């Protein structure tokens, strides 16, 4: 089977390529080597047995060339950043997905493609699912809070509160039915999900969406701010700088190792029952950010007292854990 991986030079893509090649698949990579992710160009870790095409997923001619002779696609190319260039998120993440299906249909390739696996994100779930244990009880409907306002964060109040009794809400793991995107990245990924599932069904292209939680492991880009807590804390310890933990550090997150992500990617490729579904891909364990930093210090063998509670980042979710 010949497989195309868009964004295949990246973190998840390159590991997926390695695993596929090891299993005997023929792999082609399409990547534009975005500078914020690959400041030194084509990475040395890229598998030499993979065919490499330098190009952008928004370029129809290049994407059409990359799809020639392909049996399955991992659409992992994505734009991730904290910059307010909103249109770029949709051009790269959403429009490229529409373009992928457009080419498949225009060129009559939809019957040749055995699977399209699209990378999405836990960010699609927004603030996630909550319950009020005080006045609602376990049998009441779930609550899905909106993004916390900056006015609230400025007071130092971090938690979501019940709109009826004002008690602190209890966070709950969020399953795949939860979709409440509240920033440009999440909105673009949710649109991408809908294109993949609906166009896949319409044109009988077996399609699967993978909602990754916070993926950790080797080959993460240290130059990309979106690489997350592991990058921030590791660089601080490496260069003997005081790390900054936003809010009180008690916010809950869900981390997953890259090896587990790759295993999930290969599983849906080989299983027909995965078709036309969205899957959470998470670690199954909740971590407070403070505890995550404590564990990292132990592993690294170096300690540095962090700055906690002195700042916040507007738009961050308070607690989010994928229900797997």
From TrEMBL:
Gene3D superfamilies: NAD(P)-binding Rossmann-like Domain, UDP-galactose 4-epimerase, domain 1
Name of a matching Pfam family: Epimerase
Domain called NAD-dependent epimerase/dehydratase: residue spans: 3-130, 177-282
Similarity comment: Belongs to the NAD(P)-dependent epimerase/dehydratase family.
Name this protein carries in UniProt: NAD-dependent epimerase/dehydratase domain-containing protein
Organism: marine sediment metagenome
